[in-house]
Here is the input.
Amino acid sequence: MAEDALSHPALDKEPGEQFLQEAFQILIEEGVRKGMNVSEKVCDWKEPEELKQILDLDLRESGEPNERLLERCRDVIKYSVKTCHPRFFNQLFSGLDPHALTGCFITEMLNTSQYTYEIGPVFVLMEEVVLKKLRELIGWERGDGIFCPGGSISNMYAMNVARYHCFPDCKQKGNWAVPKLAMFTSQESHYSIQKGAAFLGIGTDNVYLVAVDEKGKMIPADLEKQINQAKSEKAFPFFVNATCGTTVLGAFDPVAEIAEVCARHRIWLHVDAAWGGSALLSQRHQHLLDGINRADSVTWNPHKMLMTGLQCSAFLLHDSSGILQRCHCAKATYLFQTDKFYDTAYDKGDQTIQCGRKVDCLKLWLMWKANGTKGLEQRVDRAFAYTRYMANEIKKREGFQLVIEPEFINLCFWYVPPSLRGQESCTDYSLRLGKVAPVIKERMMKKGSMMVGYQPQGNNVNCFRQIVTNPAVTKEDLDFFLDEIERLGKDL
Ligand SMILES: Cc1ncc(COP(=O)(O)O)c(C=O)c1O
Here is the structure.
């Protein structure tokens, strides 16, 4: 390249700005306006081979003109699932909060990292304030924490910190410094606990699965039994995970009773409140998490129930002695210089296992500023009200059957088509019932009318799990949902 070429910028600012403006128009029109419009499809389903053809994904030697790129942006939105659509009930996250989305845009535009005050002064201060607010809702006056790339990673942080708490030498010496460890979680807990055990070298064989009652809640007496069992096998019980809001049934483990067991055996208590943590914002429903203040650590995902936008997951610690820092620091001198001109206590990056860390606090902070704690509480209460309405409707409708009475906002139910009604005593009833939800799901996806998840659960065959968190949803959408299941499944 000629040296002369370096005298001028290689990026033309004006066309770039023009492109951004036009792309934003598309984003608002196709993504936000159409995405939230009930008369538009939730998803324009295509088989993978057809979608590959439509999208023309190959990357080539030469670039394309802006008009073509804007068409491509349109296509990306068109063929993606609209999780903000009022008839999207498929995941634990849904909806679109304009303030949170603005926070996402600003975060992307500034493109910085959360690791040092020098590179992210606003966000270092902001993260601290948001985490403190979450800790206060748990009932902790002191503590520590960080935002993590998702609840699974937050849970893994908890295991790593708990192991370090028991065996600080393991940081240098590895597993040689640690006896055979044992950890405990309920049969209904999230699979990230098993993944964490594998990832951290603890081993999935050393995860003791504690029995649950008929509502899916951990049985504390069985926890104690399993701890004693592990001790008799010469294992070292170091970690109990209690779940507040299990993934499928939405069950809350009895944290206060579990805390008693942990105190008796001196075991680290982690509460995975990735899903149910947001109920702490509600005066009416926060009792579900009674005892959470006795936890040593908590996972809480505002990106699920609060609509903060993926991803926003807080790992919160009651310890305020700096264990996060001690457990994870590597003291890289190129980044965490000790002779900086400002107070380096604000350089929090060495507390984490990451180097660069995305800013996840702004979207939550801006959304909280816009709605206030009261507004967030109303959002949580509205989600409970949706579920109550749906549970009552299901009881009134022939062919619909609740798996359990919902305690939280997970609505698990079967649709029994007319051909199966009254056939409960037939030997193949369960087998046939289990085939209903997948067919209805296929039909709704291909039609694009709505989305809802299904799964087997414990000994139960496939049932639907509907989650409604999006405040844009109305009673009409909920009635449509039940009618549509009936329309799509009545011939099965
Ligand atoms: C109870 C529970 N914990 C942890 C997770 C994992 O969260 P993430 O998807 O952010 O990794 C989930 C996800 O659904 C969950 O339901």
Observations:
- The chain has a mean pLDDT of 97.
- The domain at 113-358 is CATH 3.40.640.10 (Aspartate Aminotransferase; domain 2).
- The CA atoms of residues 89 and 468 lie 6 Å apart.
- The radius of gyration is 25 Å.
